[in-house]
Design a protein that fits this description.
136 residues, Arc Repressor Mutant, subunit A, 3-stranded mixed beta sheet, two-stranded antiparallel sheet, 5 strands, 37% helix, binds zinc ion, Transcriptional regulator, zinc ion binding, FUR
Length: 136
């Protein structure tokens, strides 16, 4: 009994740590980056499972970058039942530093009669302003 409880406490602690990381990050983070920044060493599967659960709960969203990796960021308005991730903000991936960030810019997601939208992933690829200013 005692072990189950401490495991549960540890999971709660990890969940909070992951959400805090995403809240304080200036860019979207990959599962690897999240894992590296956590104090405890959690295995990859646990991190992915946790992230999946957060996505299902409408707490975080992800966008798949150029390299096929998923980048996770906090949701601000998706905590709804049932959670839907209809994000209309843009994401930017920099080809130089590889960073993915959520942009404040939004686009109008068109109505698609006859289709059921589950999520949107809007990604722009180019060079970010930090990389542009560091090469000039
Ligand atoms: Zn969302
Ligand atoms: Zn960059
Ligand atoms: Zn985003």
């Amino acid at each position: 009994m005692k072990t189950t409880e401490s495991k549960k406490t540890r999971n709660t602690k990890h969940q909070k740590a992951v959400l805090d990381l995403l809240k304080n990050a200036e860019k979207a983070l990959t599962a690897d980056e999240i894992r590296e920044q956590l104090e405890d060493h959690i295995n990859k599967t646990t991190v992915y499972r946790m992230l999946d659960r957060f996505v299902e709960a409408g707490k975080i969203h992800f966008v798949t970058g150029q390299n096929g990796k998923s980048f996770y960021a906090l949701c601000k308005t998706c905590n709804e039942e049932p959670p839907q991730h209809i994000h209309n903000h843009l994401h930017f991936q920099c080809e130089v530093c590889g960073n993915v960030e959520c942009l404040p810019n939004t686009v109008k997601v068109p109505q698609l009669p006859g289709y059921n939208i589950r999520e949107t992933q809007l990604l722009i690829i180019g060079t970010c302003k930090r990389c542009i200013s560091s090469t000039n």
